[in-house]
Each structure stands twice: as structure tokens, then as C-alpha cells.
Amino acid sequence: MGLLIHYRNRKDSDAETLRHGEILGLARRLSVLASKLYTLKPVRYFLTGRCPKVSSILLIESGSRGLIEGVIGGLRQTWGESVSIDLVTCYSTLPKGFEPHNTRVYRVGDYRGGAARSRLVAELRSNRYGLLGVICSGEVVMAKWKWMLALRIPAKVFIINENGDYFWLDRLHLNSVIQFVLFRSGLGGAGAVRTLVRLISFPFALLYLLAYATTAHAWRALRRG
């Protein structure tokens, strides 16, 4: 009887320890999630059409050099010559329209590794940019960098397309954002039907290939047997 009571007490203690461990694990996961949500807090400008006070602009040169050179004049005309415009780039030289004496340049090649990237983000955040421009031209240039910075820098984001046009990334321009995403994914324009047909036919084609391979291997096994 004493052994049975001891076993039950031990079982209850183990269950309590397990529950305690599960609670601690859940608390850690919630803490990580909260920190990630805090990191993504700067995208708050997506929910409003409000434009923050602009004293400086950050451009991410994630595309052909001619695109960034084409928009600098319009930005200067709109926001004035006194507004500083900085650059994140993978190129070794400055684009036309940028001067070394009034442009802070951040070259991604100088920030390799997680610690260096975190240092870059911290410095860019401390610069308190009002606007952040990202080139989305369909080119594979700084693809990971541009979205990482766009999510973590507290600035209002505008998208620069391959034609040199740009639009705000916010709720009021959601229609333009959706059209842009559809076009990039091949679901806009004349290629939409072709892309949808490929998406729909893919699982059937995969099943056919699997069935063919299975039949071929079975037939070979029977012949060898």
C-alpha cells in the first residue's frame, strides 16, 4: 500500500514537472513571437495613408543602376534639395545624381554575417528615415536584403518598378500593390491563363509520372523474376 501511494505521489510530481516545463516552453515561444512582432512594428505605415515628416530618405538599390538614377531627380524635386538621400547598394561606385559629400553609402558586402547585419539595421534605424524606397524590377539583386530592411526600418515604404515609376506600399494603394504582385507572379495580363493552367495541371502531371515510373519498375521486376 505504501509503495502504491509513493508511486502515485511520484507520478503526480512528474506530471506537475511536465506541465511546468510545457508552461515554460510556451512562455519562451510567446516571448520570441512578441520580439518578432516588435521587430515588424515599423510596417505600421502600411495601415495608413499618412506620410511621416521627411528629413531623410533611404534608397535600396536592388535593381539596375539606371532605375535609381532615374528617380533621384523626381525625389529631389518633390522633397527638396535639403533632404538627405542615403543609399544601400551592392555596387562599388555611386550612381549619377548622388554626391559623396551628402550621401551616406552602405555597401552590403561590408555587412556579412548575422552580427554585421544587425549592426547595419541598428545604424539605419538610428538615422530616422522618413521614407524608404525599394527597387522591385524583377531582377535578382539584393532580394533578401531589400525585404529585410523594408520590414525592419521604421519608414514609409515606396516601391520602384522596372519603368522607374513608384507607388506607396500602404492600405490606400492596396489595389496597385495587388496588381503589382499578380503581375510579378505571372497572374496578370496575357500570361495569367497560361500560369493558371500550369498550376492546375502540375499535380496531374506529377501523378502521371509517378504512375509511369511505378509501372516501369514493376514490369522490370516481373521480367527479372
Describe this protein's structure:
The protein is of the alpha/beta class. The chain folds into three domains: 1-39; 42-184, Rossmann fold; 187-225. It is 54% helix and 12% strand. It contains six helices and six strands. The protein has helices at residues 2-39, 65-79, 114-126, 143-152, 174-184, 191-224, and strands at residues 56-60, 84-89, 105-107, 131-135, 156-160, 166-168. A six-stranded mixed sheet has the order 3-2-1-4-5-6, with helices on both faces. It is elongated.
Give the topology:
Blueprint: H1 2-39, E1 56-60, H2 65-79, E2 84-89, E3 105-107, H3 114-126, E4 131-135, H4 143-152, E5 156-160, E6 166-168, H5 174-184, H6 191-224
Parallel strand pairs: 1-2, 1-4, 2-3, 4-5
Antiparallel strand pairs: 5-6
SSE order, as H and E? Answer: HEHEEHEHEEHH
Broad CATH class of the largest domain = Alpha Beta
Helix content: 40-55%
Structural class: alpha/beta
Count of DSSP H/I helices: 6
CATH fold node name of the largest domain: Rossmann fold
- Describe the strand arrangement of the main beta sheet, using strand numbers: 3-2-1-4-5-6
Radius of gyration: 27 Å
Summed up, the domain count is 3
Query: What percent of residues are in strands?
Result: 5-15%
